[in-house]
Amino acid sequence: MPSYRWVNHEYLTDAVVYILYRAGGNTTIVLSLAFVALAAVIYLILLPRAFSRRVGFDERLLIGLSALFMTWPFFGPRPQVVDWAGVILVYLIWTRFEKTRASRGLLWCVPLFLVWANLHGGFPFGFFILALLMMFYL
Predict the structure, then answer these.
(1) H-helix or E-strand containing 80?
(2) Tens-digit pLDDT profile for residues 61-77
(3) What b/e string do you get for 70-84 counting C-beta neighbours within 10 Å, with b at 16 or more?
């Protein structure tokens, strides 16, 4: 697309990857992003606990393995992993807000989105999820 200006929408992720690469090469990059991806999958296994009915281990395992299977092509040193972590953090902030009903807890979204917007261009998805949660649960 030679007629369009290039916008580095993930410059902060590029800086972090550079620092990780300087610290330990490709191994450090893959391990750190794999850790974030694994944390996302583990959270998806635990996520159904937040719902009102009790969900058995078999169902959580099925959800987690399904999520792992669907996201498997995207594993590796990819900046999209940042979006997975951001979505999980939005949901954690929301569940904390639901338990405490202290609206100041939602203020954690401000620094989250400020950092997320500089880490990867997928941050509008976090706004979309937060808007959905507010529409259906407030």
Answers:
(1) helix 80-100
(2) 776 677 677 767 766 66
(3) ebeeebebebbbbbb
